[in-house]
TrEMBL record:
<dbReference type="InterPro" id="IPR013083">
    <property type="entry name" value="Znf_RING/FYVE/PHD"/>
</dbReference>
<keyword id="KW-0862">Zinc</keyword>
<dbReference type="InterPro" id="IPR017907">
    <property type="entry name" value="Znf_RING_CS"/>
</dbReference>
<dbReference type="GO" id="GO:0008270">
    <property type="term" value="F:zinc ion binding"/>
</dbReference>
<protein>
    <recommendedName>
        <fullName>RING-type domain-containing protein</fullName>
    </recommendedName>
</protein>
<keyword id="KW-0863">Zinc-finger</keyword>
<dbReference type="InterPro" id="IPR001841">
    <property type="entry name" value="Znf_RING"/>
</dbReference>
<dbReference type="Pfam" id="PF13920">
    <property type="entry name" value="zf-C3HC4_3"/>
</dbReference>
<keyword id="KW-0479">Metal-binding</keyword>
<feature type="domain" description="RING-type">
    <location>
        <begin position="5"/>
        <end position="51"/>
    </location>
</feature>
């Protein structure tokens, strides 16, 4: 059976994703790219083959010839130079990571993020800068990093989406590199041990 992704034409993608509404599969790199283009980010994408709107999930498949290498954690891939420019940006970056990992509720995250901006504005005001400069700079930074047409309720929500998009792009790059390796996968059914079933089903 072919593993070719019909979007990027990768012949042996390391990971594949499937649209649970229709069963069409593509490589995970293309799946992440499709999800990155969805506005707003909480919506499900449309299948490029049949236009059915549904959730994308990553398939769990077993390698035959070698064990799947553990890729670096996404935090190791992401360039953190932007976060290390000053302590305020670094603190906000850590706060965003906590929120994206689900360790902070949205209301708490938004409140603390706004407090960080206010604290920086006050500190810069003491040094003779206009306090509003902090908000203007944050607005310009977010505007430059987000696609046109993006709508957010506050700076915190927009900043979290900037980091989420940056992580997605880093993940896509890693997946594309991994897809260049030639690997052989098993089609064995884990229940009945049929070695090469013609059709397979996926649990949501």
């Amino acid at each position: 059976y072919s593993r070719v992704c019909d979007i990027c034409c990768s012949e042996e993608p390391r990971d594949r994703s499937v649209f649970i509404g229709c069963g069409h599969s593509i490589c995970r790199a293309c799946a992440e790219q499709i999800q990155l283009a969805v506005l707003p980010p909480r919506r499900h994408p449309y299948c490029p083959f049949c236009r059915k709107n549904s959730k994308l999930v990553t398939m769990v498949e077993v390698l035959l010839d070698e064990e799947k290498e553990k890729g670096p954690k996404i935090e190791e891939i992401i360039d953190s130079t932007e976060a290390s420019r000053d302590s305020y940006a670094a603190r906000r970056e850590k706060l965003i990571q906590l929120f994206l990992r689900g360790e902070l509720e949205e209301e708490t995250y938004t409140t603390v993020y706004d407090l960080h901006l206010t604290e920086e504005a006050c500190a810069r005001g003491v040094l003779g800068f206009r306090p509003n400069d902090v908000y203007d700079e944050e607005y310009r930074r977010l505007l430059a990093a987000l696609p046109l047409g993006s709508i957010y309720r506050n700076y915190a929500e927009a900043a979290a989406d900037v980091v989420r998009r940056r992580e997605k792009r880093a993940l896509i790059e890693r997946l594309r590199r991994e897809d260049e390796k030639k690997l052989v996968y098993s089609r064995v059914c884990g229940r009945c041990h049929s070695e090469s079933p013609r059709q397979r089903c996926l649990f949501k």
